[in-house]
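Board notes (copied after class):
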Amino acid sequence: MNQAERHYAIVTASYWGFTLTDGALRMLVLLHFYSLGYSPFTLAFLFLLYEAAGVLANLIGGWLATRYGIARMLTVGLVTQICGFTLLSMLDPTWTPAMSVAWVVLSQGVCGVAKDLTKTASKSAIKVTQAQAQEQGAGQLFKWVAWFTGSKNAMKGVGFFLGGLMLQALGFQGSLWAMAGLLALVLVGVVTALPPMMGKSKASRSAKELFAKNAGINGLAAARVALFGARDVWFVVGVPVFLYSVGWTFSMVGGFVAAWTIGYGLVQALAPQIVKRSVDGLTREVPAARGWSAVLALVPMALAGAVLAQVPHLEWVVVGGLGLFGVAFAVNSSVHSYLVLAYAGSEKSAEDVGFYYAANALGRFFGTLMSGLLYQWGGLLYALLGSAVMLVICWLVTLNLPTEKPAAIGHGV
């Protein structure tokens, strides 16, 4: 194993540990507060600052990783997450509902900053390590991105299941302490195994320079807002609450969401075998992003029709539809994650990735907000219709993605 492969393996393993606890946290908060009688909109509100914080965290995190090194930002992200868990564990059952919600939102905001600092640093590290082994070409970059993204999401699925399990076995506070301990071990590994200055480069000196991206990254960022908004608008609140409302237990809901996320991650890891690769890394991959976006938009449309027609055994129709959605979404997301690194420059890849994932966080924020609102207004039907609209927008945006390398397009377009 050469140095680039070693660094890639270390970053991937550390992000696995982080994602395991992040997935568990979402299920802990969702199930714990739903069991206390919180409404769908309030449940969504608990995650709003978590998502909103990611927009700024990605932009600043990309700049900081370029200026101070990727390993240092990984360290900051892990420490911040431990602080967020500690704050959340201090929640007092005797507090008023308003104070409890405010405290959870604040703690979740800290965890949101941690998540996106860690994600930006980790995905930037892939571009840096691949640049150290350029002879392996775009195909190797696609494989590394797909494996990283897919395995991360599979680990997040395990985290969903673990969150439900720990809530029953250890309780809310005990689960948070256990996860903080796990992250402390991951932190030790990052500090001792990665060079602190990895990925350090000359950072942008002004906001204008920071936001000056090429046409590919700008287009992908717009598509990402719509893509992840379309997922979260029915996945964050709608699906878990709908399944629980038709008689599923917490363990069943957590287990299904975990299984879906693990399967989704496995499909992401297999994306390089599903999408034909081109020599230049764009001429086949960009049309693939367009085609899979169109396919994806059809799924919530069909499910909305099933809900409207009140088909028998609706919950199992939704489960099956979510499986199809997961396959198409996984391939789409994996291609997008590859394309942003293909479009990104190697010297400021952390800034480019941070800008892109700020758009990702904005999409999650909007999707989370609308998930609570639409479900409260019109149940699963409204959430599915909202998803379909966003996916049509995503498809329209991908039609304008360039099929030329950034050097040919010109940076700052």
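Comment from the instructor: Residues 214 and 411 are 5 Å apart (CA to CA). DSSP finds 16 helices and no strands in the chain.
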